[in-house]
Structures are given as C-alpha cells and as structure tokens.
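Following up on my earlier message about uridine-diphosphate-N-acetylglucosamine. Here are the inputs again, as you asked, copied directly from the submission form:
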Amino acid sequence: MERLVIQGQQRVAGELTVQGSKNLTLPILCACLLIPEPVVLTHCPRISDVEETLEMLRKLGVYVQQEGHTILCDASQASPSGLSREMTQGNRMSILMLGAMVSRFGYGRIAYPGGCRIGKRPVDLHEMVLESFGTELEDADDGLEGTRKQKNGCRISLPFPSVGATENALLCACLSEGESEIVGAAREPEITGLCRFLNGAGAQIRGLGTSRLQIGGVKRLHGTGYEIEADRIVAGTYLTAAAVTGGECQLWGVRPQQLSSYLDFLARLGCGLHLQEQGVRLTAPLRLTSRLRVKTEPYPGFPTDLQPMAVGALSVAEGEAELEESIFERRFDAAEEMRRFGARVQIAPPCISVRGVRRLHGADVTGRDLRGTAALLITALAAEGETRLEGERYLKRGYEDMLRDLAQLGCGEIRKEAKEWQSYG
Ligand code: UD1
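Thanks, got it. Here's what our run produced:
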C-alpha cells in the first residue's frame, strides 16, 4: 500500500489547463449505449471511474478504443447483459446503464451502484424515473432487473433535482414515443452537456439549462463527436490550493460562470479573481479572512463536492465560519480529519463550524472518499511540516494526476512512499 508524503508550506504559483470533467464524461459514456453508430469523445479524463465505465460498456458488447484523451465507442453490436457487483461497486454509473439498457433493448440487469460513502445514496428517484417510463423493476441478486413494458414518453416531476435521476430520465426519454417532460430537473452544467451531446446525436431536447426539460422522442440516434468541457470541481480544487497557500494560479479551459458560487466564496475570503471567457486567475491575500455562512445546494448553489476544500480554506482563515451540508448527510469525514492538522473544526450535522488558526501542522491523515482526500492533500500544502496521507486510490477516481498538476503549479515536493505493514505482538 502506498501513501503520499507532502512537504508543508509550499506555495502554488503557475498555470494549468484543467482536465475534462468526470461528471460529464461518465453519463455521456452511458448515453453511448443508446447510439448504434460510432461516437468520438475528446478531452476525456484518464481516471479510474472512466476506466470502470468503459469496462461496463465492453461487457455490454460496445467496441471501445481509447487513445490518450480520445475515446471511440461503437455500440452497434451491443446487447443487454448483467453487470455484476465487481463491475458496479466503484461508482454510480450502473444505475444509468440500467436506464440506457431498458431504453435501447427493453431489458437490463445491474448490481446496485457503489461510489463514495458520503451518505445513504438511495436510488428511489431513479426507480421512480424508470417506472414512469414504463419499466417494471424487480429485485435481482443485490441489484435490479428492469423490463420495459411500454415505450411511451411521460411527464415526470422530480421532488428533488437529483443529477443522476435527471440524467436517467433523459436517457429514457430520447428514444421514447412522443413527448416527455422533466419538471424539477437538475440544472448542473453536466446535465446541459449531456443534453448537448444527445442533441448532437439527433435527440430533440429543449429547455437546456432550465429545470423544465422537454424531449421529443426519436426512433434512432446517430453517430456524433463531442469535446468534454473542463472539470469545474478539479478547477475549484486547484483554486483552493492557491488560496490556502497564499499563492496565485491561472487555470485555463474553465468557464467561470459554472463555478460562480464557489468563486464568490473565494472572493469573500479575500482572494483576487480575474475571470476570462475560458479561464480564471486567482491571487490569494497573505491571510484569508472568514466571517461567513455557506450552505451546499443544487446548482447554481455552492457545490457539495467542494465542501471539503472549503473547510480546508476556512481552517487557515482569520475568523469563524459556518458551513451547512444539505446534499449528502454523511459528508463530514474530511472535515473531521482536518483536526489532525490542528484545525478547529466542530461538527454538528448538518453543520460544520470552523474557527481559523494562523498555522496548521503536518500530520498522518486518511482520506476516505474522492473529494475528501483531495481536500486533505491541498490543505497539507499549507501546513507546517510533513503530512502522510493515505487514500491515494480515491484520488485516481477523479483526478488524472494530482502530483503532476501540483508540480506544474509549483508544488513539487510530494512523493509516494510504500507503507509498511505494522505487526503487533
Ligand atoms: C452527482 C455527482 C456528484 C455530486 C452530486 C451532487 C456524478 C457522477 N456525481 O451525484 O459528484 O456530488 O451529483 O451535486 O455526476 N438522492 C435520493 N434518491 C435518488 C438519487 C439521489 O434520495 O434516487 C439524493 C442523494 O442521496 C443526495 C441527493 O439526492 O442526498 C443528491 O444526489 P444526486 O444529485 O442524485 O447526486 P449523484 O447524481 O449521485
């Protein structure tokens, strides 16, 4: 087992082009199953979540070719097949694969999805979507089996704007007969990206970027190409690294309006921001200041995926702040672990209060999910002394190569170390 050894008091200074978005690439890969012709995707991130999703596609008979950041998928010979627990435990995509399978073949079977343990993460809204589109669901060994009994479109009203459930509804609606409508849809940029991709393949989706999506069903989708947009969460991670280290950075490829609530947060901490059409430049003050209250919310609100990074920034800011986590009821692991750095963090779910200290100190810390581990890594850059961080495998789910990126941003003193097994007695 490996862990990362991070030298503290490094300062971010540099520029970087941000990798493609994980949360856009994954649903688009699932959508490829609907298209019986070749699709070419460019600027795809090289991360383990993508690898695992490609494995699922291969299992379903999709021809997949990956070269650098380009992926070719040809689902012309695809057929429905069961996705086992080994294939589905890494991320949330199997539930979208089920939607895509019943939509294209009328039948599909999956083991329940895995993903980060940051809350209960039920699939009831997905089930409601699939059933509304005429699919009969049955329990099947540790998962779900779906058979589509009728192909009509429908009107569906989501009680909460779930990203995944909205994506599933889109996958079901495109090839349905007649009109469909999704009311209360999630408005995340990744939803808009998925709609653009599907429209490029011949789908008829209107209302992009709004909470009311209208879809005219088509008989067949056709081959297309799509360039994946930059990952706004990765961008937010590196901007926070600059903020906590009193640094400066220029990120390219990002659309600032997709990150506006987080940029607003960084500005309120005292960071200088220069927004470009496809880029952001951040200059941190000598010391961040915090006297604020933020709450994670569906887009365009403060993104839950950047909550752990925000806790890291607030830990070294002057003043006291309160953060409310309203999306995932168990997303507090990283905040808790920050205490080992000397952060003054109090957790009373759903709230985290943070009183900033002048200096954190290096420590042995453990990441337990993707974004939490990234947050611990960037916070360690600001601490005094050395940090040993376990949980690198989580980083690989969403970041192509954080060590490479941070080195390019001027923080090269991070190395991997083999962890020796301790023997007792
Ligand atoms: C997506 C993102 C994830 C992000 C999250 C919220 C991907 C691959 N992942 O996850 O990075 O943190 O949006 O912005 O795009 N819920 C239910 N029942 C359901 C589905 C969801 O109760 O059937 C609840 C969840 O438990 C959670 C909330 O709705 O409390 C938000 O979940 P959702 O928007 O669906 O997130 P994901 O699509 O899983």
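One observation from looking it over: Residues 23, 26, 92, 119-126, 160, 162-165, 186, 190, 304-305, 327-328 surround uridine-diphosphate-N-acetylglucosamine (CB under 6 Å). Hope that helps, and feel free to reply on this thread.
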